[in-house]
Amino acid sequence: MLIVQRTKKGIVQFLAARKRRPVRIEASDGPFRYEYVSISHVVGAKLPNDSEDPLQIGSFPETNARAYLTHNWDDQYIHIDRSNSVATLLLTALVGDKRFTKLSRYANRILQWVFGAEWVFIRNLETQAARIKKNRHDDQPPSGCCLVYRAQGQVDQSVNFGRTWRFGEVAIALDAADISVIRNEHETSLRNVATAVSLAMTDTTGSPEIRFLADHVHLLTKDEVVIYVRTAKVGSTGLVITTVPSNEFVAAIQSYAAALSANSKLASMASLFTLSQHTSNDNLRSFIAAWAALEFLINHLEKKHRDDFHELLNSDQVTLPVWDKDLKSVDIKDYRLRDRFYVVACTLNLTEAEADTKKFNQLNITRNKYYHDLKIDDSELPTHHVQSLFRKYLKIVLSV
């Protein structure tokens, strides 16, 4: 008797599901929340075997966000994979990326007639997400860990659900909200913590490179229905040296991130610096962003330490590196960028000023060969060396 009742109940549920059609999301399904996640590849860091995973490295109460390091890439990509799958389904009439497209459409119609539109959509979504996951694994970074910035909050803007389709606990919305507003809200905190991680890595033997892979925003109804709106980008990988960070590593990240958050000008430079490490960039775009960050930092620090430098310049107790002009007789407004870097290096890092100014001059010459003379190819621009010099002097400033 019990078996018969269960069978009848199963048949009733099956027939009900078969009749269900996509429904729209309404304003009454709110208030709406959002979840934002950004994933970056920390090229040179691996978590210790006895470490917590995820390892939290920062929290941002003002934006209800947290940042952590983890080796568990798949858990971070769940909604990104599904959102990318939704985009593919929309482009293929909800069928997905199939080898035999026309045949798959006929099969899709038969399955919809038998099982219903909702069941077929969820099936196609999971199949497509599994395919994207497999492709991602094929291109997965072989080293390091990922830096995850994750936030939640209320959607403060008006939401347009004129074009929405809900299938069970999953919904699609086209241009329902301006997702860039949410991204912009977290941009500063995200870039500060990424820069802080990069700076902390310079104390280790691992690569300090941070590669931005993807970010994503999805919305949630009051009943936890996930609404996929927009997706982001993925990037490339490479071979690097990795290291296991110590406890001091996390403390350094928190210290650098706090210092950047307290100084809007340095935070702006950090934003430019992180743009130079975006995996979607070619070398020229990365170089432009990296050089702009370095130039911004040099001009800022030169103004701040101008008086300190003139004390050194006029002191009989300090020997400055040989320079090709007498800066005592040059008006400050006539200083070139290389002169300003000389001021900064002598003031903040006198013991290495000679080597650093030599390195900067070489980078500046290479830059000018491309910008003014077009004598070199953009692939030859020394982006990594510029990033390295920027890291060095920003770290000095933040460590004071």
Task: Please render the helix and strand layout as text.
Layout lengths: L1 H18 L13 E10 L12 E6 L4 E6 L2 H19 L9 H15 L1 H22 L6 E10 L9 E4 L2 E4 L5 H23 L8 E11 L5 E5 L16 H15 L2 H12 L7 H22 L1 H8 L23 H12 L4 H19 L11 H17 L1
Parallel strand pairs: 6-8
Antiparallel strand pairs: 1-4, 1-7, 2-3, 3-4, 5-6, 7-8
Q: How would you characterize the overall build of this protein?
A:
There is one protein chain. This protein has 400 residues and is α+β, with helices and mostly antiparallel strands. The chain folds into 2 domains: 20-230, no CATH class; 281-399, no CATH class. Helices cover 50% and strands 14% of the residues. It has helices spanning 2-19, 73-91, 101-115, 117-138, 179-201, 247-261, 264-275, 283-304, 306-313, 337-348, 353-371, 383-399; strands at 33-42, 55-60, 65-70, 145-154, 164-167, 170-173, 210-220, 226-230. An 8-stranded mixed sheet has the order 2-3-4-1-7-8-6-5, with helices on both faces. Helix 2 crosses helix 4 (117-138), helix 8 runs parallel beside helix 12 (383-399) and helix 9 packs across helix 10. The chain is elongated and about 100 Å long.
